[in-house]
Write a structure and sequence with these properties.
By secondary structure, the chain is an alpha+beta fold. The strands form 9 sheets. The protein has a 6-stranded mixed beta sheet. Strands 5-4-3-7-8-12 form a 6-stranded mixed beta sheet. A 5-stranded mixed beta sheet has the order 16-23-15-17-18. A hairpin with a 4-residue loop joins strand 27 and strand 28. The protein starts with a strand and ends with a strand. The N terminus is likely disordered.
Length: 570
Amino acid sequence: MMRLARLSLILSAALGLTSCSETPRTQVMVFVRADDAVIARAERLEVIVRGGPPGSMLEERERIEYSGPTVPDGFPLSWPVRIAVVPNAGDVDRVYEVTATVFDDEGQVAQLRVRSGFVRQETLALELFLRASCVDVSCGGPETCREGQCTPVQVLNPCTLDIFESGGQKPSSGECAGFDAGVDAGPVDLALDLDIGPDEGPDEAVDAGTDEAVDVALDDAVDVSVDVSVDMAPVNPLERHNVVFVTSVGHVPGDLGGIAGANEICNEHAENADLPGVGSYVALLAEAASSPFDRLTVTGARGWVRLDGMPVADTVRDLVRGRLYYPISLTETGSPAPVAEVITGLTEELDSDPNTCSDWTRRGTPVANFGGAGTVGSGAERWAGSSIIRPCDEPRRLYCFATSRDAALDPPPAPPVEAALAFVSSTVIPANQGRGAFDRQCQSDAERGGFSGRFVALVSTREESAFDRIQFGVEFYRVDGVRLGTRDDVGDETVEASVSVTSTFEYGNFGVWTGHRGTPRDTGTEDCSVWSDTMFNGGFSLSAARELFRATTRSCATAQRVLCFQADDT
């Protein structure tokens, strides 16, 4: 028989049930299975359960860790994994979402996310199968991987699920007539039965749903029972995750005292600001023969947020791939840092540059130089790397990462339904194809990503500004849930993050057409003859830059991507 550990969000369940009842339980048995290719790489399985009443954002209420023999933390990982999700007080109107993620020592291997609901007095069966086609496919925001592609989260009407151990029988469709699995924002009252043992056949704990069976499950799991708080208040991100900041002042690269000295500087900044995790901060700084990402990986840390609680990145792998949510743009005091260079010693590809001021110990006589720096406020690879060469005696800021925590970081919630969306196009378009071709690419990408509405390219001409093309929307969000700001913020280039993600959640620092080197509010003449010619130069920027337009120009004979913004909801 399986061993069950009961994790409860209601105190009465944690104390056990002693009365007898003939009423069948309302619950869903969730089975997490995987292809052999996934299992072969699985060192850890994380299952997250979110839930709440329909009509508001689903909130995380339980995160369960299963570990293989090489990872000491968590419950033993044995396939398949089974979890029973039970609504509090039989409230069958609640909905839930289960996310199963497999990790190896390098990061995420595969993930699947499913949402459904309950049927009164029925035990249903729901299977999450992690397939080989989704290995190394990373989907952001509200998406999940199905058949190797990122698609919207699968929503299953509970009446389409099999009744547990019924031979395929399904509930009456009338039981689900009012089912609503919309994204929402209230607390969830769920009790979770956590299966931590091998599947060796039926389990009395879920067979008939009687109180006697529940008592058996509780008795079986005494050695691994978990006490879960009944406090339903959201967790402060600064109490759960690592803080990352950019130093409020610059430091001379050649006087850092090596990696150890740079780490000490980070911890001094953190201590002076009374930040959590003092003593664990490390500087994101390359040496000629070693990567700062390797040193971060060794710490086992994950999950970084800014001082305002906004998510930055979940794993070291995300940092390397440029999968940043909000940019590292706040100092240790929580104040915004100006756009400035940051010492990293990393190239545009985020590799270590051989020029590192003798590994940050020498100014040089004559003055030495170092290669590679990040840019405050940028996304994708531009946040940490570049091809610039700078002197070792000029002060510049540092990135500082706390490494004392390892809780996984959730992506931002889905954009509000009334928000307008933005992304960078999935492919390049020759300048002389015209603005209509730019718009068609944006519309095609939006449809591919499953987003409705009309999308246009954020490019200017001498006749019309880019700003005048986006009349729709009070606020703009990236498709992964990162808030950009108001329409005026777009026009003034004061957005909160760069537009460095495509409609299918590919992150990168891509070249984009703009039409001139002013702001999106301006008309300009650097528009390749109103996007019809290959002569001259056209306005050009980078998708990872928070300054959307103020960059440079590129030959009109080249092809670049474009920034795509929602123009209306039709």
